[in-house]
Design goal:
The chain is mostly helical and 231 residues long. It has a single domain, classed as MetI-like (MetI-like fold, Orthogonal Bundle), CATH 1.10.3720.10. 78% of the residues lie in helices and 0% in strands. It is built from eleven helices and no strands. Helix 4 packs across helix 5. The radius of gyration is 21 Å and the shape is globular. The termini are far apart. The model has no long low-confidence stretch (mean pLDDT 88).
């Protein structure tokens, strides 16, 4: 890595290169939509698992914990087969589109959010529930009280899910195709441009991605710190 490459990478960032900005914004859009989708489905399920008893609950918890380590390329392969022309959902024409990338990232982040938020909810001191019931709270009010107490853990779970999404490359590369100006995001562009020898753009995106990761980790640390102080 020569000083010239580093200087050109920094110059791309400071000049707000149009191609660079387009890739960054698409990355944030895809990961942001995936986070909204997975959190919208994952948080209610985590609350249900944490607050209610039902048949096969233990199995569901074990599945979510197991799926936290889903290999991205396997997820990408399965979605590719489902979304391809001969697949069950091939008629929707989602393959090689940002929508397919959002779907892939949602599948990956969903079990992470469910598992971490479920752990936060079940980790609330039982005395909180007992106090709420003793004060005449309804089941709904009791549930909201418990969730409120677990909010820092829930926020940590969602932030962790977003951090996982920003670093994803395997699944979105398979279903998105890395099409310039359409499905090319930061992680896939870094891989492509490195292979091509265009280290300036790859390094510039790497710096941006690292900055985003540091920001996410700082937010996560701050949220966890507040939760520890509260407890």
């Amino acid at each position: 890595m020569t000083p010239d490459v580093i200087a050109k990478a920094v110059e791309l960032i400071l000049d707000c290169d149009k191609e660079l900005l387009k890739i960054i914004f698409l990355s944030l859009e895809v990961s942001g939509l995936a986070l909204i989708l997975s959190a919208s489905l994952g948080l209610p399920l985590a609350a249900l698992m944490g607050l209610k008893k039902f048949p096969l609950k233990g199995v569901l918890v074990s599945l979510m914990n197991t799926f936290m380590g889903l290999p991205p390329v396997v997820v990408g392969l399965i979605l590719y087969l489902l979304l391809s022309r001969n697949g069950i959902f091939g008629f929707m024409g989602l393959l090689y589109t940002p929508s397919a990338m959002v779907l892939a990232q949602s599948v990956l982040s969903f079990p992470i959010i469910v598992s971490l938020c479920h752990s936060a909810i079940t980790g609330v001191d039982p005395i909180i529930k007992q106090a709420a019931v003793a004060l005449g709270a309804t089941p709904f009010q009791t549930a909201m009280t418990i969730i409120s107490e677990a909010r820092y853990g829930i926020m940590s779970g969602v932030i962790a899910g977003f951090g996982r999404l920003m670093a994803e490359v395997g699944a979105i590369l398979i279903v998105g195709g890395n099409i310039a100006g359409y499905t090319r995001v930061m992680t896939t562009t870094i891989a492509l441009e490195t292979d091509k020898g265009n280290f300036e753009l790859a390094l510039a995106l790497g710096i941006i991605l690292l900055s985003i990761s540091l920001t996410i980790n700082a937010l996560l640390h701050n949220v966890q710190k507040k939760g520890n102080l509260r407890s």
